[in-house]
Amino acid sequence: MNNVLPCAMKMHYKYDLKGSSYKRRASRKEHAKSSPTFKDLDFKDMHEGLHLDSDTYNALMKTLQRDCRVLESFKIMDYSLLLGIHVLDQKPLNRGSRCDSRKSQKVLYSTALESIQG
């Protein structure tokens, strides 16, 4: 997955999203990696969501719908959205704690849209 996201920019968070909750939590082994890829339930636990303006949201939905139609035409059921989040103004809350990305400006990279800022 690393070669899909831009390597020139550090991704503070990476998610492999399928829109399912069944077995969709990263393993302890994955969490221990220096650059883990989290899953759907981790995304729900770690973030309040993504705030997108209406144009960006509409473009993303159009792309996802188009991708689904193409996959459906080939009778392919499996779809993953790889989402990378780079936090522009990420600052640690205190020593040893996770960074608070909830109120930060983010740049998002995904397999659906090349780059969206939100």
UniProtKB/TrEMBL annotation:
One Gene Ontology term of the molecular function aspect: 1-phosphatidylinositol-4-phosphate 5-kinase activity
SUPFAM superfamilies linked: SAICAR synthase-like
Gene3D superfamilies per record: 2-Layer Sandwich
Native source species: Tetraodon nigroviridis (Spotted green pufferfish)
Keyword Kinase among record annotations: yes
GO biological process: phosphatidylinositol phosphate biosynthetic process
GO cellular component: plasma membrane
Descriptive protein name: (spotted green pufferfish) hypothetical protein
